[in-house]
TrEMBL record:
<dbReference type="InterPro" id="IPR027417">
    <property type="entry name" value="P-loop_NTPase"/>
</dbReference>
<dbReference type="InterPro" id="IPR002078">
    <property type="entry name" value="Sigma_54_int"/>
</dbReference>
<dbReference type="InterPro" id="IPR009057">
    <property type="entry name" value="Homeodomain-like_sf"/>
</dbReference>
<dbReference type="GO" id="GO:0005524">
    <property type="term" value="F:ATP binding"/>
</dbReference>
<dbReference type="Pfam" id="PF00158">
    <property type="entry name" value="Sigma54_activat"/>
</dbReference>
<protein>
    <submittedName>
        <fullName>PEP-CTERM-box response regulator transcription factor</fullName>
    </submittedName>
</protein>
<dbReference type="GO" id="GO:0043565">
    <property type="term" value="F:sequence-specific DNA binding"/>
</dbReference>
<keyword id="KW-0805">Transcription regulation</keyword>
<feature type="domain" description="Sigma-54 factor interaction">
    <location>
        <begin position="145"/>
        <end position="374"/>
    </location>
</feature>
<dbReference type="InterPro" id="IPR014264">
    <property type="entry name" value="PEP-CTERM_resp_reg"/>
</dbReference>
<dbReference type="Pfam" id="PF25601">
    <property type="entry name" value="AAA_lid_14"/>
</dbReference>
<feature type="domain" description="Response regulatory">
    <location>
        <begin position="3"/>
        <end position="121"/>
    </location>
</feature>
<dbReference type="GO" id="GO:0000160">
    <property type="term" value="P:phosphorelay signal transduction system"/>
</dbReference>
<dbReference type="InterPro" id="IPR011006">
    <property type="entry name" value="CheY-like_superfamily"/>
</dbReference>
<dbReference type="Pfam" id="PF00072">
    <property type="entry name" value="Response_reg"/>
</dbReference>
<keyword id="KW-0804">Transcription</keyword>
<dbReference type="InterPro" id="IPR002197">
    <property type="entry name" value="HTH_Fis"/>
</dbReference>
Length: 456
């Protein structure tokens, strides 16, 4: 609902202004600084019209400027339209300089006033949309990848550039950093997208089966080969072949793969007839290939063949700000999947997510967020639900976080009550809450509400 606060000390003008607006805008009025601040706290209006001439200085502008300062300090997103006399341009300009969004000159003209106010509402709306978009924005259009860090966005830009070409790409990085996801992106953003994406994990298949898995075999080529079968490479014809954990490929097979990459033909096991295949090859490994070459377990010539372009995916802990963005996105999607929507992280969880080194990268995070989605009580996910340590001030304080918040709330309520001599109406105005809410809170925190026996 649109909320407008009119701050005007002239009762006649107050009601004239009030009648300028339709039911679509909820209008409140205040005639001095104090009541204006109470209304601001309670309604949080998007737009305020502020007559600078307020008591005790109705002829000047000092009280109006003081209120303008208060409003922009307490609620800086509020659009304040300053109302001045016809000859008062100087103060209008000064108010704009202080942060007012517009000004309006008396005498009242209903059309101009509604125009100016509606424009301010539109501006407030646009700013809100912008803030929401910025907070949700995922800096990449690559499907499935959530990233905001410059490090990961640079990788995504490279993927977008490399995808339409056919160059053989090597993706390196720790386990769980998203190498396979990026390999799929290379495929999805290429002209091969509607053809197969065939993935094979070279570390997961026993050495004696890997060759026939990759290259296929002819009937009778070994015991049990009762009929011919195409391998992964042939099956990927026209599409993309993803060789995961290429660093674990046995030496003997590396030679055969090299021949395939050079000649673009496959020799099925037991066949002497090469079959031409058109595939784009993407490889990945979490190992240090240079080190493997030095150790003599990886062929240098194969390395140069597969690494026409190399992408080194940074670990999650080395991506500035990504851990939280990815965790929040996972919490949303896993929450939806598990029928626990609208979960949010507590402050200790946010701190813990930022501080954890994530040795298993996004895969580790998926497991932790999944667990927390199941374990969380209510709508808030804590560091404990994530099984993470929150080292804000030693583990003892973790248990006390809720207590810390409640203590702060209790102290502010008590302060407000004391400053108003325990007048509930005044204190609730000061706190920007209703009287019933204040009574609930004083009950909750067992605060005596009479001045004679404060429980401080
Ligand atoms: N930036 C990201 N945004 C969202 N999800 C991601 C991101 N990076 C990785 N993931 C998810 O994390 C999981 C692990 O990613 P992936 O399998 O691509 O990692 P990997 O580097 O290939 O791991 P490994 O080396 O162990 O094979 C997948 O479920 C993937 O969807």
């Amino acid at each position: 609902m649109k909320q407008l606060l009119i701050v005007e000390d002239d009762p006649g003008l107050q009601s004239q202004m009030r009648w300028c607006f339709t039911d679509a805008i909820e209008v409140s009025v205040a005639s001095d600084r104090e009541s204006a601040l109470t209304a601001l706290r309670r309604m949080e209006p998007q737009v305020v019209t502020l007559d600078l001439g307020l008591p005790p200085d109705p002829g000047g502008a000092s009280e109006g400027f003081a209120l303008l300062e208060d409003i922009l300090r307490l609620a800086p997103m509020t659009k304040v339209i300053v109302v001045t006399g016809r000859e008062d341009k100087e103060n209008a300009v000064k108010a704009i300089g202080m942060g007012a969004s517009d000004f309006y000159q008396k005498p009242l003209d209903a059309d101009i006033l509604t125009f100016v106010v509606n424009r301010a509402f539109r501006l407030a709306e646009l700013e809100l949309e912008n803030r929401e978009l910025a907070s949700q924005s995922n800096g990449t259009r690559i499907k499935g990848i959530v990233a905001a860090s410059p490090e990961m966005l640079a990788i995504c830009r490279t993927i977008e550039k490399v995808a339409p070409t056919d160059v053989t790409t090597l993706i390196t990085g720790e386990t769980g950093t998203g190498k396979e996801l990026l390999a799929r992106a290379l495929h999805d953003l290429s002209s091969r997208a509607d053809k197969p994406f065939a993935a094979i994990n070279c570390a997961a298949i026993p050495e004696n089966l890997l060759e026939s898995e990759l290259f296929g075999f002819e009937k009778g080529s070994f015991t049990g080969a009762t009929q011919s079968k195409k391998g992964k490479i042939e099956n990927a014809n026209g599409g993309t072949l993803f060789l995961d954990e290429i660093g674990d490929m046995p030496m003997a097979l590396q030679a055969k793969l090299l021949r395939f990459l050079q000649e673009r033909v496959v020799d099925r096991v037991g066949s002497v007839k090469p079959v031409p295949v058109d595939v784009r090859v993407v490889c990945a490994t979490h190992r240090d290939v240079q080190e493997l070459i030095t150790q003599g377990t990886f062929r240098e010539d194969l390395y140069y063949r597969i690494s026409e372009i190399t992408l080194d995916v940074p670990a999650l802990r080395d991506r500035d700000g990504d851990a939280l963005v990815v965790a929040q996105s996972l919490l949303q999607s896993l929450g939806k999947q598990m029928d626990r929507p609208n979960l949010t992280f507590t402050e200790d969880a946010i701190k813990a997510i930022k501080n954890h080194p994530w040795p298993g990268n996004v895969r580790e995070m998926i497991n932790k967020v999944k667990r927390a989605t199941i374990m969380a009580d209510g709508k808030r996910v804590t560091a404990a639900d994530l099984e993470l340590n929150c080292d804000m001030a030693g583990p003892e304080s973790q248990l006390n976080l809720r207590q810390v918040r409640e203590n702060a709330e209790r102290a502010v309520i008590l302060q407000a009550l004391q400053s108003c001599s325990f007048n509930m109406a005044q204190a609730s105005r000061l706190l920007g809450i209703t009287r019933p809410t204040l009574y609930n809170l004083t009950d909750k925190y067992r605060i005596e509400t009479s001045a004679e026996s404060p429980s401080a």
